[in-house]
Amino acid sequence: MTAEAAGTPEAAEIAAARQRRLNLYLGGQASWFISLGIQFVIFPYLVTQVLNEPAARVGIAQMSLMLPALFFMLLGGTVADHGDARRILIRVHLLATLPPLILAGILLAGELSYAALIVYALVMGTLGAFAIPARDSALTRVAESRIQQAVTMAMGVQMGSQLVGMLFAALAALTGAAALLLFQAFVMLTGLWASAKLSPLPPSNVATMSRYAQIVDGIKSAAAQPMVATVIALNFAVGLFYVGSFLVALPLMIRDIYATTNGEFTFFFAIVNICFWGGTIVANMALLRIGHIHHRGRVMMGSLTSGLIILALFHFPMPFWLLGLLVFWWGMGAGTTMTMGRTIVQTAASGNHLGRVLAAYQLGFSGGAPLGSLMMGLLVGWLGIFDAVLVPATIMIGVLLLLYMFTPIWSYRAEGE
b/e map of 56-68 (b: 16 or more CB within 10 Å)? Predict the structure, then answer.
């Protein structure tokens, strides 16, 4: 019998140390996603309201936030596998304080330009490409066991923190965008402190090949596991057809249909984001209460089906309260999909390839999103908002049918943890 099983003082001390480590990890994650929640609202506000850019340029701007993931996410996974995750997190938090500080200075000087926003987006997107794999690979080492529960907790903190950030962003009409950007930088510094308090998280293996060879090896490891490869492909479709719609169609809908002033835009758009991420929190609380789920693939398929129905309903003009209700429903499906997909990958990936496989998983999502943002920007400019949303909804029907017929997602069954 182990010391922990025997309930000895040593076991209690070990359990307390694990909980402290998890709390610090979640604190660092919370700071990153509070900042991201602020960015979710402030960035489209600056593009659509302050600069009043057309639909295509809104799509390009939103694409720029996610485009670096296409180039750097797999490299970020390789770095996470062969570096100290704690050190990586400290560095990205420190560097991530600079873009909002600089952008706040540009705003206060009255020199905001489209080019400045694009540079801000590219830098923040690049830092995220290194932060996400390091944070995801660290979770397995911090949690040690009961991965689904740890993933659900981490997702809950992520979504709750984004919600808090959006609530702060809703105050933009009172505080001004520059003050919120300064607060965003401060929040990043608190994450740096939490990451620095963690004990070292050394690499899971030692590099014996070039960076390029390591990246290829990680892709092969992901592709060799049919369920992992399926989830990555599904994530790409979600990024392409759902995330692009959320990031482009919804801000333009708020600007052109519901809002008449800058203050109204930040309020309405923050409410929409709060509804979405509030839905993800409700879904994760339900998953945490339910516990182990065997048919994770079927749950994902059901959630994604609800998403395309909601997207199709956006074709019809509706009062703002109904839009918020549908977005809340959409968020519940998204929270379920993200938690189930990440749990599948987290449990299936081998320790030596964990960072790279998780990076490939995230790349599926982040790789589709910039292309989806560009696509939706062009579609809205061509068809208008109400008809544009029917395109991704229709295509997702075919995607889900193909997944059902040709992949193991429907028959997949997770063993008990």
Answer: bbbbbbbbbbbbb
* pLDDT for residue 46 is more than 70: yes
Q: Which two three-digit tokens encode residue 40?
A: 């979710």
Number of domains forming the structure of the chain: 1
412: in domain: no
Q: What is the pTM of this model?
A: 0.70
Tell me how far apart the alpha carbons of residues 271 and 335 are, in angstroms, rounded to a whole number: 18
Q: How many CA atoms lie within 13 A of 68 on its CB side?
A: 20
pLDDT for 224-263, tens place per residue? Answer: 667 777 888 888 888 888 887 888 888 888 888 886 566 6
- Give 135-184 as a DSSP string: HHHHHHHHH-S-HHHHHHHHHHHHHHHHHHHHHHHTTHHHH-HHHHHHHH
Query: 414 lies in a domain?
Result: no
Residue 181 lies in a domain: yes
In a domain, 214, yes or no: yes
Distances (CA, A) of 295 to 20, 67, 93, 340, 356: 32, 33, 37, 9, 25
Which CATH number does the domain housing residue 40 bear? 1.20.1250.20
pLDDT in tens, 383-413: 888 898 899 889 989 888 888 887 777 776 6
Range of the domain at 123: 3-406
The whole-number average pLDDT for the span 8-17 is: 66
